[in-house]
Task: structure prediction
Amino acid sequence: MFKKIRYAFEYALFIYFIAIFRLLPFKISSNLGGMVAEAIAIWLKANRIAKKNLKDIYPNLTRQQIDAITKKIWNNLGRNFAEFGHITQMSKQEILELVEVKNAEILEKYKNKPVLFITAHYSNWEIANIILPHLGFAMNTIYREANNYLIDQKIKEMRSQDKNVNLFKKGRKESGKFLINILKIGRAHV
Result:
């Protein structure tokens, strides 16, 4: 019972903040999201875990260096969240104004061919799934589902507004087999 109430509360906050950030201009929303996440993070258990992990991996880092790194981590996550509501509603032109696509002629060569896009969680990792369908790629994406099933449903809905995006949960054996078959028939996935 408590979990359902918590999930409903988290979902309401998620919807509220997505709506607030959508009302603001993109850059202001992004900056504000970064600042809010930095401010909230100091109270989170995940922040303590991140600092401990950094200290374990890089024992020579000072406390100030670790604090600076974790601050950047939370800022980036906050920006991603604040930008998410915007980028899922942007037109091709708006996305292309936001992102510089280098070597677009290389991408042209691989349309309708089996392509595997590999991305990292630098900056806004949602951009690949937004821009590649605009560039003519049908995307089949493996994703990690959110812990809160209500938020997960909303994120899936927002991510797959473009009909050229199919989502597959990470860790499912069927998903991996299906994606291999997709590559065999000449479609892309990230």
User: Anything to note?
Assistant: The first strand starts at residue 115 and ends at 116. Strands lie at 115-116, 139-143, 165-169, 188-189.
